[in-house]
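Below sits my pick:
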Amino acid sequence: MKKYLTLALLLCALLPLSNAQCTPLFLPPIGMTHCQDSVDNTWHEVGSTWRNSRCMDCTCTQCCSAYATPTNFPEDCVSVFDQKACKYIVHKKDDPSVLCPIFGAFCLFLNLKVESY
C-alpha cells in the first residue's frame, strides 16, 4: 500500500508537467505577446509559466493547483497551509516543531484521493 501512496505523492509533485484538472483560461489570439493573471493582475509573456498568490501554477492558457491537501494523519496533529511555500505542513497540535506522517492526500488537480492503511 505504501507503494501506491508514494506513487500518488509523486504524481502530485509532477503537477507542472500534467494538464489534468487544470482551469482553462483562454487561447491567446495570434500575435498576442502577453497575458494578464486575473488573480494578481500581473502581466506575463505568452509561453512563460508563473505561480500566483493563490498558489496556482499558470501559463497564459491554464492555471493548476500547486499543492495536495492532507486528508489522513494522526489525530494529535494539525494541518496548516504555508502560503509562502504553497504546501500543507502537518505537525503535532501541541508542538509545531514536530512533523507528523501523512497517510493520505487529495490532489485536486489530479482529482485523486489516496489513502494508506
DSSP finds one helix and twelve strands in the chain.
